Amino acid sequence: MRGTEEKGVDTRIVTDMMSHAWADGYNTALLISADRDFVPVAEELQKRGVKVIHGRFGTKGMDLSKKCWGSIEISALMPQFERRQ
After folding, report:
1. The Cα angle at residue 7 between residues 6 and 10, in degrees rounded to 5
2. Which of 32, 50, 68, 79 has its CB 3.0 to 4.6 Å from that of 45, i.e. a possible disulfide?
3. Is 57 helix (H, G, I), strand (E, B) or coil?
4. CB-based contacts of 24, cutoff 8 Å, min separation 6
5. pTM value?
6. pLDDT digits (tens, 9 = 90+) for 25-78
7. Is 51:26 a contact under the CB 8 Å cutoff?
8. 3-state SS class at 79
């Protein structure tokens, strides 16, 4: 069942990304995932003029990075997200 739920979430993300792009809701998207299943949506959005930036962790998801307008290494930024006490 976990794989089914995961695909449902992926499908919802793609649907939201496409529907908002068609409505001219944004011109830049930050997609944080290592899942190569997002390559087709990244390619399609860019054909429509939306810049897709891949938020990645290390070398995971490099296939997606190659298809995006740009990429950001999230691991290097993690210390900035730590909660200060």
Report:
1. 90
2. 50
3. coil
4. none
5. 0.81
6. 999 999 999 999 999 999 999 999 999 999 999 899 999 999 999 999 998 888
7. no
8. helix
The phi-psi region of residue 2 (left if phi > 0; otherwise alpha if psi is between -120 and 50; otherwise beta) is alpha
CATH fold for the domain made of 2-81: Rossmann fold (3.40.50)
> Is pLDDT larger for residue 66 or for residue 4?
66
* Distance from C-alpha of 62 to C-alpha of 54, rounded to nearest angstrom: 9
Domains in the chain: boundaries: 2-81
Distance of alpha carbon 16 from alpha carbon 41, whole angstroms: 11
Q: What does the alpha-carbon distance between residue 41 and residue 26 come to, in Å, rounded to a whole number?
A: 15
Best CA proximity match to 68, nearest among 37, 35, 30: 30
C-alpha–C-alpha distance, residues 59 and 71, integer Å: 11
Q: Report CA 4 to chain centroid distance, whole Å.
A: 20
Whole-angstrom Cα distance, residue 44 to residue 26? Answer: 14
